Amino acid sequence: MATIVVTGRHRPHEVMFLALSAVVGTLFVAGARPPGTIEQLVDPWVLWTWYVLLLGSGIIGLISIAMPNTYRALVLELAAMHGQVAAPLLYGLALLSTGSPRVSFAAGFCLTWAVASAWRGWQVWQGMRVLRQEGGR
């Protein structure tokens, strides 16, 4: 049985994470400093990769919401979900690699966020597959 993905009615938490990613990514890329404890725990390249992934995936995801063409909207949303998986996964793993028990909650939150985004990406992929099969591309 096919999963139906409705692109015009995005779940509020998805939109919130995309908007938050775009805003936070923009602020960090523009020079806002992360909390000092986080900055000290991970390498600068991890921070910058996280910033750029948050910014890019947030903006791409928000653009996908406004797309009138369903298939193109799903393509953009899937691209955004790749970034929404990669950013928190990278950051969560970087936090875990510190070996500090103080990062448990933050790392768990990031890894859960990555899993939720992967699940949404799979749903979008299935929706794209159904559209291609029906010729709605």
- In which range does the helix fraction lie? over 70%
Helix- and strand-based class? mainly alpha
The SSE string, one letter per element, is HHHHH
What is the averaged pLDDT score?
85
Q: State the distance separating the first and last CA atoms.
A: 20 Å
Number of strands: 0
Task: Sum this structure up briefly.
With 137 residues, the protein is mainly α.
Task: List its traits.
137 residues, mainly alpha, elongated, single chain
Could you explain how this protein is built, in words?
Helix 4 (70-96) packs antiparallel against helix 5. The chain is elongated, with a radius of gyration of 16 Å. Helices cover 77% and strands 0% of the residues. The protein is mostly helical and 137 residues long.
Helix and strand topology:
Elements: H1 12-29, H2 36-41, H3 44-66, H4 70-96, H5 104-134
Helix pairs in contact: 1-3, 3-4, 4-5
